[in-house]
Amino acid sequence: MQNKSPPLILTFGASDPVGATGIQADLASFAAIGCHGVSTLTAVLVGDTSQIDEIHPLDADLVNQQARTVLEDMVIAAIKIGQVGSAENVTVIAEIVSDYPEMPIVLAPFNAAIPAAESDAEDIVAAISELLIPQASLLVISSSELSRLADTWKNPDLAESSIDIATEVAVLLDSGCQYVLVTDISLPANEVANILFNDTGVVQHNQWPRIPGVFMGAGNTLAAAITAVLATGLEMPEAVLEAQEYTFAAVSNAHAPGMGKLVLNHYFWTEESE
């Protein structure tokens, strides 16, 4: 007897030898929420728990071949796009996802911990802004990453003035992105906020205690968890809230496999049951 397959998710991202970010962390998050992940590697990282030292992008043709082969064989329920590796890869990924306009697409391509060659960084951000953000069902971006991204469209005459988060998000929503989740907004009393926006304004505002420690992969895990919950059939606001609860628990149960940062525990409930 053939068993029914769990929801299938395709993730684009880098291979992380530590398993804290990228493809490895995505697959763990998907499995924890009852989904099966299939992957397309965009780059290979070199690093440890202290830092990521190098990123080696894969050829765009290989990225295309990996994804197209899987998509022709399986019925995918959702797509997550993480680290893209190069501007050429952005073009290929954008062409692929454009063939699946009804599919939930969660975009979380910005990671300050991953180095980018100075000559490539600007081209990658421009390509993401032009080709991927307009196609995204949800863009997951930290408040600091949002400010850096906003620098690409600020009027030079206003460069010294502050632009609030809602104004910065409005630019992204105007480009075609359906939802934007801004994370890690610092609040008093050692709390952080995550705010979900769409074209009507604030959809959801969640506050969480800031957990002491320096962690690897929290944003990556949140985006992966949202993708998995969407794949199970929940609507965006419910998926975002449920994924935050999962990520908070994974951060709360983080462990130290090396001498550097803490790594999230994607299977925290197995220890709780024990």
What would your notes on this structure say?
With 274 residues, the chain is of the alpha/beta class. It is built from nine helices and eleven strands. It has a nine-stranded mixed β-sheet, with helices on both faces. Strands 10-11 form a two-stranded parallel sheet. A hairpin with a 4-residue loop joins β2 and β3. The chain is globular and about 50 Å long. About 3% of the residues have low confidence.
SSE blueprint:
Blueprint: E1 8-15, H1 22-32, E2 36-47, E3 52-57, H2 60-73, E4 78-81, H3 87-97, E5 105-107, H4 118-132, E6 138-142, H5 143-150, H6 165-174, E7 179-187, E8 191-198, E9 201-209, E10 215-216, H7 218-231, H8 236-252, E11 262-263, H9 268-273
Parallel strand pairs: 1-2, 1-4, 4-5, 5-6, 6-7, 10-11
Antiparallel strand pairs: 2-3, 7-8, 8-9
Helix pairs in contact: 1-7, 2-3, 3-4, 7-8
Summarize the structure.
This protein is 39% helix and 25% strand.
Report the sheet with the most strands, covering strand number, pairing sense and barrel closure.
9 strands, mixed
Q: Write down the Rg.
A: 18 Å
| Fraction of residues in H or I helices | 25-40%
Ranges where pLDDT stays below 50 over 5 or more residues in a row are 156-162
> H/E element string?
EHEEHEHEHEHHEEEEHHEH
Give me the number of helical elements.
9
The end-to-end span amounts to: 32 Å
The order of strands across the largest sheet is: 3-2-1-4-5-6-7-8-9
Mean pLDDT: 91
Q: Using the alpha-carbon principal axes, give the shape.
A: globular
Strand count: 11
Beta content:
15-25%
Look at the helices and sheets and give the structural class: alpha/beta
